[in-house]
Write a structure and sequence with these properties.
With about 300 residues, the protein is an alpha+beta fold. The chain has a single domain, classed as 3-Layer(aba) Sandwich (Extracellular Endonuclease, Chain A). The strands form four sheets. An eight-stranded antiparallel sheet has the order 1-3-4-5-10-11-12-13. The chain is globular, with a radius of gyration of 18 Å.
């Protein structure tokens, strides 16, 4: 599917589009029923200008679960965006790894699928990462952008185990500072977010790649970043917690050392990303900067 040059800057149409069959790779996250539920005010980050990127409505068991902006050339997600679900935080590891058939095909029902036994790479390895890209890599692990411990429904958790939701993370970083931060955010949102929290987690890259068979295959992130928005929160929370609402961001180096996760404002994160990503000066991770209350303009009312 080809996209017009400006399709990655979200512009909501004033008119309803005609109903169509579920598709995974879409021109607009709003075109797939309920896919926009993963986004604050139904609005994805704006200002990302690379027309080669693919918008994936991550579907599992015939239901949209979260959304991903995917780079088929680097074979990693630029970001995944999801709604946080209160959970005990236990981590499951028995879900099968899946791939996204509609990055390579135009038919199908839009669901991610488990890698088949003895699968033929030629069908989809050009458009996305495959298991072999990670199998012989010692330094890196498959790091979730939408982590399963931020989901509660078994199907929502299973859906996070798609290679279109993971990036190569240095093992020490993945199991150390970054996992600790994911747990810190889980506890904070569990305890103090009264409504729905929306999270966007992504990466920056500088050209380093995992190679397989003498070919560049998967980009290695330089930085990993995340931000959440929760406008309905406990106003009686302790001050050191209350100042981290309604929104907060974090940034870290994907490295063996010097990989401390720094909590920063969303605006500071956006300013950083403007120097590290192919974005314009209108980059905005959350609609209206997650200001509470944040009324929806009249021309967007039809999207609810």
């Amino acid at each position: 599917m080809q996209f017009s040059p400006g399709c990655l800057v979200l512009v909501f149409s004033l008119f309803h589009s005609a109903p169509r069959a579920p598709a995974t790779v879409v021109e607009d996250f709003n075109h797939v029923e309920r896919c926009k539920d993963s986004l604050y005010m139904g609005t994805p980050p704006r200002g990302i200008i690379d027309a080669k990127l693919k918008k994936i409505c991550q579907r599992y068991a015939d239901k949209p679960r979260f959304v991903t902006l995917y780079d088929p050339q680097k074979r990693i997600p630029v970001y995944s965006a999801y709604s946080f679900k209160k959970t005990e935080g236990d981590r499951r590891v028995d879900y099968p790894w899946m791939y996204e058939p509609q990055l390579a095909e135009v038919d199908g029902n839009g669901n991610m699928l488990p890698f088949p036994t003895g699968y033929l790479h030629m069908k989809f390895e050009d458009s996305q990462a495959v298991l072999d890209d990670y199998s012989d890599v010692v330094l890196y692990e498959r790091g979730h952008l939408n982590p399963d411990q931020h989901q509660s429904d078994p199907h929502d958790r299973a859906s996070t185990y798609t290679l279109t939701n993971v990036v190569p993370e240095i093992r020490e970083f993945n199991i150390g500072p970054w996992r600790e931060h994911e747990e810190r955010i889980r506890v904070r949102l569990n305890n103090y977010c009264r409504g729905t929290a929306f999270i966007v987690t992504g990466v920056t890259t500088t050209g380093h790649m995992i190679r397989r068979n003498n070919q560049d295959r998967v980009a290695i992130p330089e930085d990993v970043w995340t931000a959440y928005c929760c406008t309905d929160y406990d106003r009686n929370a302790p001050h050191d917690v209350r100042i981290r609402f309604p929104s907060q961001a974090a940034l870290a180096k994907n490295a063996k050392e010097g990989n401390t996760v720094h909590e920063i404002t969303v605006q500071d994160l956006e300013n950083f990303l403007k120097t590290r990503m192919d974005v314009d000066q209108n980059l905005q991770l959350f609609y209206d900067n997650c200001i509470s209350p944040s009324p929806l303009p009249l021309y967007l009312h039809h999207t609810i």
